[in-house]
Automatic annotation (TrEMBL):
Pfam families to which the protein is assigned, alphabetical: MerR_1, TipAS
Source organism (scientific name): Paenibacillus dendrobii
Every HTH merR-type domain range: 1-69
Domain of life: Bacteria
SUPFAM superfamilies hit by this protein: Antibiotic binding domain of TipA-like multidrug resistance regulators, Putative DNA-binding domain
Identification of the protein by name: MerR family transcriptional regulator
Length: 246
């Protein structure tokens, strides 16, 4: 199918498809002699997966990471989408009910409590993303966080100070090459620190570094120690992992 046909079929714009192509999320399988994009049945299946994730409010970077994983299972993903969309439907029905009651409240037909006025609202987190993180994302990070939370307040403070010290050392050498001996020694300290809290293989360590850039939450927190630190750590962690693969 041509790009205009796919856009009309999926209810999205041609510009959106071009953007997906540019960021490596969905490349059309072929092109015509004139250079026009041509999408295969497999491309359409991938697009459907992308749009399911988008409906559940996943950022494009995370969608690309998930569906590009070697262990990504399309059928398993569809089962998860089904479960999460049903949960979203329940939440939307609660919000619709709240809206209808609010309309009646404004007309003086009923009186709502303050609690009833906000039934169904919850913007504190994305529950759908959390489930996907457990399957495809940073499960090791979550396990490390759980272990950290079980420490005493004093132990948490000591670990926090040590962690911040490592961040500061790395931030001070951001101007250097991430493959330099000094950078590799410092990032090695970070690897040892993390493995006191969880179990990180070199490959998992490399994946975590990529997450520092792909996930805006990580980037924002890490770059507080120095602009560009997240990207520097990603590159240093990738080099360290490659050097220490079994």
């Amino acid at each position: 199918m041509m790009v205009k046909e796919v856009a009309a079929l999926a209810g999205i714009s041609v510009r959106t498809l071009h953007h997906y192509d540019e960021i490596g999320l969905l490349h059309p399988s072929g092109t015509t002699e004139a250079g026009y994009r041509v999408y295969s049945e497999e491309d359409l299946e991938r697009l459907q997966q992308i749009l399911f994730f988008r409906e559940l409010d996943f950022p494009l970077k995370q969608i690309r990471e998930i569906i590009s994983r070697p262990d990504f299972d399309r059928r398993e993903a569809m089962e998860l989408h089904h479960k999460l969309l049903q949960e979203k439907r329940v939440r939307l029905e609660r919000m619709i009910d709240t809206l209808e009651k609010t309309m009646k409240h404004d007309k003086g037909e009923i009186r709502m409590t303050n609690q009833e006025k906000f039934a169904g609202f919850d913007f504190s987190s994305n529950p759908y993303e959390q489930e996907a993180r457990e399957r495809w994302g940073d499960k090791t990070v979550d396990e490390s966080n759980d272990r950290f939370n079980k420490l005493s307040k004093k132990e948490q403070g000591q670990m926090g100070e040590e962690m911040n010290a490592i961040y500061r050392r790395l931030a001070a050498m951001c101007h250097q090459s991430p493959v330099s001996d000094e950078a590799q020694r410092a990032i090695g300290e970070w690897y040892q620190f993390l493995n006191r809290m969880g179990k990180y293989s070199p490959e998992a360590f490399k994946g975590l570094g990529q997450m520092y850039v792909d996930d805006e939450r990580f980037t924002r927190n890490i770059d507080q120690f120095g602009e560009g630190l997240a990207a520097f750590m990603r590159d240093a962690m990738a080099e360290y992992a490659d050097r220490h693969q079994n």
